[in-house]
Amino acid sequence: MRAAVLHEIGQDKLEVLDDVEAVGFGPGRVRIRVRATGLCHSDLSAMGGVLPQPAPFVPGHEGAGEVLEVGEGVTRVKPGDRVVVCWLPACGACPACKRGQTELCLAGFMNAGTPNFRRPGGDVFGFAGTGTFAEEVVVDAGCAVPIPDDVPFDIAALIGCGVTTGLGAALNTADVEAGSSVAVIGCGGVGISAIQGARLKGAAEIVAVDPVASRREAALAFGATKAVSPDELPGAKQLLTGGEGFDYVFEVVGRSATARTAYDNTRRGGTLVVVGAGALDDFLQLNMFELFFDEKRILPSMYGGGDVLRSYERTIGLWRAGRIDLSGLITHRVALTEINEALDQMRTGAALRTCIEI
To answer: How does 216-254 read in b/e, with b if 16+ C-beta sit within 10 Å?
Structure first.
C-alpha cells in the first residue's frame, strides 16, 4: 500500500512509499479506502514538532473515503458506505462526554500512541490516530462517520477538520451576535470558514487579516467586508470601530504573537477566540491588571467547540442549501505522489486548501 511517511520530526519533506501496511483491524475497527484528504496546517505543525506526535508517522487527518471492511461489533457503517474520518471521536462515556462537551473527549488522543501502520523496518504511527495520507487506514469505528451519497469525497474531507473547526468557532464558541464587528487573523481554510460562520450569524463588519494578498482577495469572496495585511490592522480598527476594538477577534494562526495582537484588537468586554493550535512552549503573556480591567473573554475553540457529529450534519445542510461555499476552498489538487508540492503550497500561503486525491 502507498503512503506518505515522515521519518523524523523536523524533516520538511515526506517520502511516498509503497511498502506500508495498515494494521490494527479487528473488533470495533473499520478499514477505509481513502479517496480524498486535505492538507491542514496542523500536519505541518506535527512535522515540525510544534504539535506532539511520535515518529515515524503518516500525516493527514482530514480525510474521506469508503468502507472496505468492518470488524466484529461495528453496526453504524458497512462495506461500501461513504464516510468522513473523524480524528476526535467521542466515547460517549467519559465525564466530558456526559457533560455534553464531546469535543473535549480524550479517547481519540489515546489512539495517537498506537501504531496505525507497519513497514518492513518497523511500526509507523498515524497523525492524530488516523494518518490519511495513505491509500488505506484502519481506525476505531467512531472515527468512521457515514455521510450521504451526494457529498463528494473532497467536500467531505474538508468537513473532517478545517471547515468544522472554523465554522464552529463562529457558530458554537463565539456565537457571534448579529450586527457585530469581527476580525479574523489568519485566512487559510480554517480562517475562511470562520469568516463564513460570522457571515451566517449576521456580523456587520468582517475584517480578514493575512499577510498573503491572494488569501485576502479570497476572503472578500467568502464574505469578508474588508481585507487587510497585519500592518494595516490598526488602521482598520480605527476606521471601523473608532479605535475601540472589534467585538470578536478570531486568532487562527496558533502563535502567541498573533494571539497578543488579537487581544489588543478586541474591544473591552469583547471576545477573543483562540482557534489556532500552538506549541507547548509558546506562552501568551497578559498582565493581571489588563486581564481584570478589560474584561475581555478569552475563549479557546477545540475542533469547533461543539458536538462533532451534529456539526458535520449542520455543515452538510448549509452546503446543500448554498449558504456556505466549500468547493471554493479547494484551490489546488494534487496526487499523493505530489504531496511535497502541496506542502510548499501550504507554507507559502498559495493554497487555502490543497486536496490530495488518492
So the answer is: bebbeebbbbbbbeeeebeebbeebbeebbbbbbbbbbb
What does the pLDDT look like over 286-323, one tens digit per residue?
A: 999 999 999 999 999 999 998 999 999 999 999 999 99
Question: End-to-end distance of the chain based on CA atoms, in angstroms?
Answer: 11
* Residue 251 and residue 262 in contact, taking contact as beta carbons nearer than 8 Å: yes
pLDDT of 112 over the 80 cut: no
Q: Which residue has the cell 507547548?
A: 280
Q: How far is residue 271's CA from residue 255's CA, in Å, rounded to a whole number?
A: 18
Lookup: cell for 73: 461489533
Confidence of residue 170 (pLDDT cuts 50, 70, 90): very high
Q: Please tell me the distance from the alpha carbon of residue 293 to that of residue 6, in angstroms, as a whole number.
A: 47
For residue 117 the three cell numbers come to 501502520
- Please report, as a single letter, which amino acid is at residue 245: G
What does the chain come to in residues?
358
pLDDT of residue 264: 98
Cell of 200: 451566517
Q: Which residues pair with 139 in a beta bridge?
A: 30
- Cα 47 from Cα 9, distance rounded (Å): 5
The CA angle 351-259-6, to the nearest 5 degrees, is: 45
